[in-house]
Automatic annotation (TrEMBL):
Segments crossing the lipid bilayer: none
Protein name: Transcription elongation factor GreA
SUPFAM superfamilies noted in UniProt: FKBP-like (SSF54534), GreA transcript cleavage protein, N-terminal domain (SSF46557)
UniProt domain Transcription elongation factor GreA/GreB C-terminal: residue ranges: 78-150
Family: Belongs to the GreA/GreB family.
UniProt source species: Candidatus Spechtbacteria bacterium SB0662_bin_43
Gene name of the record: greA
Pfam family, one: GreA_GreB_N
Domain Transcription elongation factor GreA/GreB N-terminal intervals: 3-72
Function per UniProt: Necessary for efficient RNA polymerase transcription elongation past template-encoded arresting sites. The arresting sites in DNA have the property of trapping a certain fraction of elongating RNA polymerases that pass through, resulting in locked ternary complexes. Cleavage of the nascent transcript by cleavage factors such as GreA or GreB allows the resumption of elongation from the new 3'terminus. GreA releases sequences of 2 to 3 nucleotides.
A molecular function GO annotation: RNA polymerase binding
Keywords: DNA-binding, Elongation factor, Protein biosynthesis, Transcription, Transcription regulation
UniProt-listed GO biological process terms: DNA-templated transcription elongation; regulation of DNA-templated transcription elongation
Length: 150
């Protein structure tokens, strides 16, 4: 079972709907038009369409599997860091950062979304405001103090 937030689950469902209802039919039309041109061995549009079709079908299969095996964790107001929590932390150098603890399929480091089973995410789980955690990273040990949880 893959743990994820309700938001992550809904985003995957939306992506699946787009792939099945928009991308798949668009690619089918591209392939149909390319086939009508004849000689498929020299037809770039056909080759490109087949590659896109393969990628879309593979992504659809992955998403369906993820949704089927999803374990949605609903966040509670327990006052501790859990899946779905948005936390504000202060690093040892005084910089404040915002992280959201997500499932593996939802990570986006540029948006501060980190997985619950990443070293950083694991360190924050079950902590409360005021707690300090140490995390071993490729650049050394980092220390964070949790300022708030929402």
């Amino acid at each position: 079972m893959a743990k994820m937030t309700r938001e992550g689950y809904n985003q995957l469902k939306q992506e699946l709907e787009k792939l099945e209802n928009e991308d798949r039919p668009r690619i089918a039309k591209i392939l149909k038009d390319a086939i009508a041109q004849g000689d498929l061995s020299e037809n770039f549009a056909y080759q490109d369409g087949k590659e896109r079709q393969t990628n879309v079908e593979a992504r659809i299969a992955v998403i369906k599997d993820e949704l089927k095996n999803a374990e949605i964790e609903e966040k509670t107001s327990s006052g501790i860091v859990q899946l779905g929590s948005k936390i504000v932390v202060k690093s040892e150098d005084g910089l404040e950062k915002i992280f959201t603890i997500t499932g593996r399929e939802e990570i986006n480091p540029m948006q501060g979304k980190i997985s619950y089973d990443s070293p950083l995410g694991e360190a924050f789980l079950d902590c409360a405001p005021g707690d300090t955690v140490e995390v071993t990273t490729p650049s050394g040990i980092k220390t964070y103090t949790i300022l708030s949880i929402t």
